[in-house]
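For this section, I looked closely at a protein sequence along with its fold in token form, which I now present.
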Amino acid sequence: MADKLLVRAYNVEVGDCVYCRIPKGRKVGGVVDDFHMLIDCGSVGGVDHLKAAIADLENKMLPDAGGPKRLDLLVVTHEHKDHIAGFDPDYFKNIKIENIWMNTAMDPDHPQAGRTLRLHQLATTAMRNLASLNLSLSPELEDLVALYSIDNDSAMEALRETLPTKNGITSQYVHAGMTGADLGLPLNNVTIRVLGPERDIDHFYLGAEADEHLQGLVAGGALFKEPMTPPPAYPTNISQSDFRRLQSRMMSSAFAFAELSSKVTNNTSVVLLIEWKGKRLLFVGDAEWETSFKDGKANGAWNVMWHERKDDLEDPIDFLKIGHHGSENATPWNDQENGEVTEPSTILDSVLPTPQGATGPTAQAVVSTMRKNYQTIPRAALLVELGKRVKNVRNYQAELGSAASSLPKFTQFEKTWLGSPQPWRTDCENALSGAEWVDVWIEA
């Protein structure tokens, strides 16, 4: 299959680990061969799936020239556990990494992300302090706390220091407007373009209003101080009821910080547009959308791209890596389902138009997902809508039969929608065949 581009989405539960092989996409010293890239390696579950994915990558997918296997490009879309937990240097000890890209918001010295980095630091401190208290939290809040795990520190150290040193390279922080050629990739007849994030992180994705509001919330909050010694059950100079109200306000402030920081982190995901032999592939990390773009406010990444990089999104794409594990906030659409033309629906109609006539869809898509605690991850109605716009779909209810009822939270969130065609899902493909990855082939 030398003339087909391969996208392999590994089954890592809730997380992304996506391999892409571009045939004859690399040229060094007159020698042309395939270009190999990995986008993210993370999960909020255990590491077994991640270790298995890297082992498959090493043993089956990467080229063997008698030395370490070669990975031409490693892309880290953003700093969440479900995208970075697998960056243990031991997993990559037999792999030679030629280039590492991270988004510019991950640069601790980036001058246009100072407030965003401070927000992330405060949220991380608060979530880790909450974790240390062993409080009883809802499953959704437990997932939010888990995104700020201390494991992230070792992953970021590996990406900034250990892996670059081992491979004799320097990690590069990328932003919209950059291309693979600008960044020194040895590409051949293929273009890799960065569509997000914009360089001015604070301006486009945080906004002054949100920053000022949250700075007021944090004042005096013990949860935001590091280190924090867990307090007694309640202080002696305040009633238990007053203390519980105070504790509740402190926790609400902490979760407000974490929610906003998580949103900004998603919206600063590296977004890549790959153009190969007339085909357009879009990898969006966890980029989110809002109802409209507002200059100087906290914007969704899709809205920013639509206003700043519209030329790259006005033509249909041939492949979409569905964002944020199928969440409703990560693929722009009219979530009111009323047919109203909105900015999000216009974006979706541009990149993945609904087919007209008898031709049928030509684009493909894949989503790396597993249903756990969030109703909206994946959002079944969104996946059904996308199923009308892509050709690689399954009726999972029909194919799984009675086994469908064993899917997590089937009755609550899947039963109504699973009988309609949806794009290929790593969780359902695993339930069907035990497959630990989903392969999508793009023909020239």
